[in-house]
Write a structure and sequence with these properties.
The complex is a heterotrimer of chains A (801), B (168) and C (423). Chain A is α/β, with parallel strands linked by helices and 801 residues long. Chain A has 26 helices and 33 strands. Chain A has 5 domains: 90 residues, Ubiquitin-like (UB roll); 145 residues, no CATH class; 192 residues, 3-Layer(aba) Sandwich (Rossmann fold); 131 residues, 3-Layer(aba) Sandwich (Dimethylsulfoxide Reductase, domain 2); 99 residues, Barwin-like endoglucanases (Beta Barrel). The longest helix of chain A has 19 residues. Chain A is globular, with a radius of gyration of 28 Å. Chain B contains 7 helices and 4 strands, in the order ααααβααβββα. Chain B has a 4-stranded mixed sheet with strand order 2-1-3-4, with helices on one face. Classes of the chains: A alpha/beta (801), B alpha+beta (168), C alpha/beta (423). Chains B and C meet through helix 2, helix 4 and helix 5 of B and helix 5, helix 8, strand 5, strand 9 and helix 12 of C.
Amino acid sequence: MPKLIIDNREVTVPEGTNVLEAAQALDIVIPHFCYHEALGAVGSCRLCAMNFLEGPVEGLQMACMIKAEDGMVVSTVDEEAVELRSHVIEWAMTNHPHDCPVCDEGGECQLQDMTVAGGHSRRRFHGPKQTYINQELGPFIQQEKNRCITCYRCIRTYRDYCGGTDFGTFGSRNRICFGRFQDGRLESPFSGNLVDACPTGVFTNKVFRFKSRVWDLQEAPSICPHCSLGCSTIPGGRYRELQRVKPGINRETNGFFICDRGRFGYDHVNHPERPRQARLDGQQATVDAALTAAAQRVRQMVEQHGPDSVAFVGSARTSLEAGALLAEWAKRTGSPHLLFETHRERDRAARILVDRLGDRACSLAELQQSDLLLLIGTDLIAEGPMAALAVRQAVRAGAQVVVIDPRPIDLPCSCTHLPVGPERLPVFLDTLVTRKTEALTDAERNPLQALLEQLDAAKTPALLGGADLLGSRGISRLLDAAVALDNNERPVRVVGLLGGANSYGGALLTRSPRDFDTLVDDIQEGAIKALVCLESDPYRECFDPARAQAALGRLELLVSFDCTPNLAAQRADIFLPSRPVAEMAGSFINNEGRLQAFEQVIEPGISIRETSSGDHPPREFSLETPGALPRPAWQMLAQVLDLPGDLPAIRQQIATADERFDALTSLTADETGPRITDPVVLPDTAPDELPQCVPGETLPLLPVQGFAGSDWLAHLSAPLQPLEGEPTIWLHCDLAVRLGLAEQDQARLTTPLGHCHVTVRTSARMADNLVLVPHLWGTALEGLVPGGRHIDCRLEKEVNL
Amino acid sequence: MSELLPQQQIDKLKAHAAEIEHPHEMIVDVLREIQAHHGWVPDAGVVLTAEILGITPVEVEEIATFYDKIFRQPVGKRVVHICDSICCWSTGGEEIADHLQQTLGIGFGETTADGLFTLLPTCCLGACGDAPAMMIGLTTYGPLTATKVDEILAKERAELAKTTSGKD
Amino acid sequence: MTDYTQVLFKNRRPGETASLETYEKTGGYEGLRIALQKTPGEICAQVKYSGLRGRGGAGFPTGVKWSFFPADQPGEKYLVCNGDEMEPGTYKDRQLLLADPHQLIEGMVIAAYALQAPVGYIFLRYAYEDCSQVIERAIAEAEAAGYLGKDILGSGFSCELHLHRSAGRYILGEETALINGLEGRRPNPRSKPPFPAQRGLFGRPTNVNNIETLANVPHIMRNGNAWYQQLSAPESSPGTKLFGLSGHFNRTECFELPLGVTLREVVQEYGGGLRNGKRFKACLPGGASSPYMTAEHLDVAMDFNALEEIGSRLGTAGVTAFDEDTCMVAVTRNINRFFARESCGWCTPCRDGLQTISWLLDKIENGQGTEDDLTMLHDQVRNINGRSFCALAEGAMGPVEALLRLFEDEIKEHIRKGKCPFG
């Protein structure tokens, strides 16, 4: 740990820290552009000059390029250093337009901050400025090249860190610009990070552009609800509209960046069909009346038919607080039926992972340190995009990646991919556990042998698997494999990609060994007569929606708390409008057991944009804010339970009742979050329905998640619509040839559920004899749920007449 | 000259790219071959280079736009590079440049109406002992006088006329 | 003109390129035969003790550079010849190649053997198409004669050479930018450390030397260090040097002279004085990045150390002379425009600072300069010099700094008169 002196103050920093970081440790912030904690230093901007007075390095140096060493004496206020910094800023500004009044970066322009901090205030250069023609970069990013100060942060973020391949540096000397080869949508699923990386307004958020001045935004630290990784975010809203999301900083999870689904998936909050009104038996009601009715009818049901007649189901987007209160409600009724995932395999997988993860848990920061990563049955770009970025950082540091998955996996880094059918995944997992290779084909044996050797030799190996393709048995075997591959020197880390933001928390709260499919049996038989859905849609999100829908019609009472226009909300006898993450405080536990709090960003309400066609002020006047009725689910549940309705009290109540959640009482949204690991109530053994597809006479269809639009909330977000696109299926090129289909053909996909028109995409990098289909919301096939029941299909080319 | 590269040459380059460990190192070579054949490198030339080398067009464009002797815009059949660096400047390079502009009737960066010549300034050509100098295509000329420039242009014109008529 | 020993130019004939036969007749490839009898370490040591200094501009001792090279390290290692001769006023490598190209081939094979780097690249600038043809022929001849290729002269040592034709841009003369250029990456300089000797071309140990430097090696091998050192007077700068004369000299040719000849001898004997009988005002002694020398420096010895002592640099020894009627503001403006245009755009001081200086010099030369502009010129030089990522901007400051040091009165006259005093 080198000890050095900066501006007469001593500081001790970890080995490898550069002097700019060392100064920051003393709260001395020196202007800089090219240095970024996640990107490192390249020494191109020449801004962070300091004078090295004594020690191994002497003279004026760029602090970001010098490793802190013992005995260094450094001055940041040295006259030469200050003069140079002001010159570098002056140079950086020579071509910068004075369009600040109309620039959408205004309010968060780092160039402006650095200009002021660098001491440049008067323009001396009056020569002509360089100008450029902008590119059309798709729906997310607006480009304004003239503002570029050539700090190279964009290329280092987009290409080096995020692995995007359609972005480059063009030109030379003082005519350099950054962009695509030709106009077109930026292809990286992390493209939005350009907005934050650019210190000025070259790349701005096209969706948010000119909606608000940033200082007018209401912002608060939050957690992304779109997958199970729990990335930190800072949503911003104004006039009751959620307008953007930018990344929060959590060095254990997302670091400094987020994916485009997290950035542009926020719009479910503003969805025009979002239910904002409580309903009782088809009529509008007050929230209080509906809550009272819900409590009463559940009680009556229990009195009449016993506690077994009521079931409570939450979801992966239910906050820990609301989930705990739902559990309390179930407990008070005496009902044994409490679940937090209607998708049987996701539920079971989450519970098994939570039960056994223990010290194998691996944050994204730890994942970056892995030297060997085996991704089996997971498509990270779809199931946990930021994990793919963590894998990329590991690869940049020298790690090897092996992927075993039927899909045409597009990781932002190099990997070895074995595109095997989903039915082979259990065999591979067994082999990892037993090292017996008899069940493998000749072609599979060598790569698996090599993989086993690599795993044995690896110092920090990690196994990553997804609940959708592996199912509960697969996740269980993944954990078995980790145990089998442990050795005296190191454990094998495990990352499980779960159903959603609070799948882990839900598993911790689950009280019943049964899964939703067996509850459906009870509903079908009339044993369960009442169902309370907490931000949950068993009609469309369960393992087998067709079967569930038939049974759910038999319910005598359906209560739904929700903030989205899903089928449970529409069909409920009693409906309570709840709030999405951005409109309340709460907490989630991510897929590695990290408990993280989020704060309320905005109040609910129909945005001014809608109530007044975008004008201000609104032309309609009322004493109440339109659409402002939704309340946090935890608040409504507290009312049902006759508990105090404020969050600190509820958290205290939860922590008192269950010591695992002790940390809740002091948790704040700006901390990395403590990890909670604990055995949970494991599911009953299920009928072995995996492998999901059996190749043979029929054509197996495998529903999978896509990058955008597979999760319900993302599907409801208008900015992501261009990415969700038209219904599409993926086939191996050889299969396509056998079926007489070609890339971009239109085809008719027929299944027992119905049929749908799809566009054919082909790939040589996927398993043969398999049709991959993303969640086809709004079509006859929307019941094909990723990770759901296996199904056969027929695919025929549509001939345009 | 509408063809970017003859197929035979494309095949040869592809074969070579497949043989070597770092096909990236051929980017400038391929761009130069396209330029030698087609006169300049249009977008399609960047795409073709990427295809030959098995890399992305953006990786090629990053290189193509860096070098000043790769032309990403249409040029005439002969590019006239007139040196404007110090040795040529001190020996009358500016007068030669003026003379070229007048004779050809174009400014820097422009192409003659007949499509024969494009005039570009260039940095030092390494012909400082023969200043002032210019390079037409890949041939360096110097020391130049106005008369010599006229003779050289006439010679180039005659050669161009020959190749054009020969092709027809 | 004194009849100095011709080493590199001994086979130079007007309009002719020495054939392999001619080269062999005058001792060509004897150096290689001798070298192959020695161990690689012995060759490195000999080059080190010969005192040979790099001819590309920096004058770094070649043998010392070689001593940093991990010749024993297994795996690929590369030898790269820097033939991106693009600094204005520099044309000596072209003259060398057109005169007697086998010197380079032989030098590279010896260096490849000494460094155990059996794959060599010759990086050649775009404008040197004539040289590229000469090199290709020389490579073919050397291969046919067994001086290059597999099992050279039965020694068991094999070496292959590749010619890379570039496409413009001065920055590629910077060795790490050149390596990026060879790899097909954007030719920005790389951060050092790691130095190319540790991680260079394709991430492997790489040694980069200039054409003239490598061409000296066979002669040192063949004739020995004592012979080499007696070629010139200054102990610190042994050997001969190619001096390319340009600008206002009567004779603008390339001469091979011993290091340490005086500037006066170069100007009067070899340059033949200045055109039209004008008086010598100043010169760039070693390419456009070397600070000016004036008439007061005529008796300075043209060697690496002596020129550093007077605040200039021998650089590439491309001597560009300016007569008494030359406006040094205009000269500097021209030179600075070159550097501004050839900046790779990686770091701010070079990319935007040189542009700022260009603007200032334009203003002053056009008669619109002010005292503030002069002050600004001073502060620009002060803040660019030594602050940029690589040596390009520092080189660019050579003439500007010398302009301020030696010709500030001339700048002031521009400002005072509101026009260029030279018309």
